[in-house]
């Protein structure tokens, strides 16, 4: 294990412990919520009672949970007596699930920081038969401890490029060494398999994204929320989901401020707190209304959704969609909108999103790197014929149905490997 990596982790762990001890119970920023969660994580773990078979799923945040959820639900059906632990690194995932029913996990908690002692203590409690990580969750100490205990680990919906930490000259050794813990890595494209081969890892294959199965399940779930139904029924509506930073805000503000009347916009920030909502409101030169203040006689054409957990359902109400996070390496889920056949756009950073790249090639998605490009894209679809929009809906939904079934294939392979 890299001395550099563990030295950095040791320092970070000390800072987190100190900051958490000094933290006020009233502090509500995302960082404060994370620190509070780390402070109490082993207290949460004490409530877990292991069974004969335990499975551990780890997600960075809520977007990755949409990949894990169908796998956990399928596991529940196949192994009803097994117990499932679901961990998150971000407060967003933890907090969104608090209000949800039928979460397919027996325990939901934060992942303790990736120190050697934390990895040992966590695995002593959970005793997993297998561990599943989503997309790009590389935690060297957890992986190496899993390997030491002969517990198989899997990485699902992976996109490996040369930007992965495994290729770093300084500190990359810990990540390269931890690859031996994976029994199999399910990549979203051939590039990922080939990139892993450069690192000497050959237990990889191309597989579709379980996120497709989750999106299809959500799309088939009845859902009604009268205020949004009423708002979107008035005219064509652009839904901007997971607005993440000032680049997203600037694109949307340019479009909205230039088109007073005749168009509607439903804006959904990724972080639903006063700072991020106020940031959007400050950039707008036209009136807007928060969902929490909705009334049936509202005249504003802009609504800001100030709660969490609705986005995957409300895309069904839109005409077109903008997906936030595309100016960072964290472009959010494009499938949640595509499953309803909506034309989508996003920023230029798609290197970690194989599905986004496929949708661009198919003409279902457009990269809009500037406010002007975004407004031109929005103009085209706000003015498109109903026939053209219907044709795109058919192509988008057909694409998702053709990609379905990864959940069953992946879980079958995992359970088969675990039984050997």
Describe this protein's structure.
The longest helix is centred in the first third of the chain and has 19 residues, at 3-21. α1 crosses α2 (30-45), α3 (62-78) packs across α18 (406-418) and α11 (246-257) packs across α16. This protein has 18 helices and 14 strands. The protein is globular and about 60 Å long. It is α/β, with parallel strands linked by helices and 420 residues long. The chain has a 7-stranded parallel sheet with strand order 3-2-1-4-5-6-7, with helices on both faces. The chain has a 7-stranded parallel sheet with strand order 10-11-9-8-12-13-14. α4 (91-98) links the parallel β2 and β3.
Summarize the structure.
With 420 residues, the chain is of the alpha/beta class. It contains 18 helices and 14 strands.
What's the gyration radius in Å?
22 Å
User: What structural class do you assign from the helix and strand content?
Assistant: alpha/beta
The largest beta-sheet arranges its strands as 3-2-1-4-5-6-7
Number of helices: 18
Helix content: 40-55%
Give the biggest sheet. Answer: 7 strands, parallel
List low-pLDDT spans. Answer: none
Q: State the shape.
A: globular
